[in-house]
Specification:
This protein has one domain. It is 70% helix and 4% strand. It contains five helices and two strands, in the order H-H-H-H-E-E-H. By secondary structure, it is mainly α. The longest helix has 39 residues. The protein starts with a helix and ends in an 8-residue tail after the last helix. A two-stranded antiparallel ribbon has the order 1-2. Helix 1 packs antiparallel against helix 2.
């Protein structure tokens, strides 16, 4: 399990760095576009397409796994706090498994769409050139499947007996 967690952790870190780079590039691209548009009447071609299809897709879907790994999603524990620890862990494991199944199905649907768009070479026309957008379709399955994988690992941890610390 440690090997799977290590590999998933590395993939999660890489996706988080990509998301951060996408946010930085989006900020630079939009700032440059606005500045050039209003000072020199020369906007940056393709800004809308790059922001909409590339930067936003990475910024939204790639951090999913990191947020799940840290368990920073919103959780309402009003009713579960009163449960005994074994029941609470069992309920948490069941919720994680159900969520992982949902995300896996969501990712599958996204992968089918991404595969179809990859096959046709989906692109959109910018002012001066075409922007290939099929690569960004893969952000949905990558983000949701990695989050589902963390949920599966966490569900196993919830029901597995605690391990004794190494001497």
């Amino acid at each position: 399990m440690r090997t799977a967690e290590g590999a998933l952790g590395a993939a999660t870190a890489a996706m988080l760095w990509i998301a951060g780079a996408a946010l930085l590039l989006m900020m630079v691209n939009v700032t440059l576009d606005v500045t050039l548009k209003y000072l020199f009447r020369w906007p940056v071609p393709g800004t809308l397409e790059m922001v909409s299809y590339y930067f936003m897709a990475a910024a939204v879907f790639f951090p999913f796994a990191h947020v799940q790994r840290k368990r920073h999603h919103i959780a309402v524990t009003l009713f579960t706090d009163a449960l005994p620890a074994p029941a609470r862990r069992g309920l948490e494991a069941a919720a994680l498994l159900l969520s992982a199944v949902y995300l896996a199905a969501f990712g599958w649907a996204g992968a089918e769409e991404a595969w179809e768009m990859t096959q046709v070479g989906e692109a959109t026309g910018a002012v001066a050139f075409d922007v290939l957008i099929w690569p960004t379709r893969w952000a949905v399955p990558l983000g949701t499947w990695s989050m589902a994988a963390w949920m599966l690992l966490q569900a196993v941890r919830e029901v597995a007996p605690p391990r004794a610390p190494a001497p």
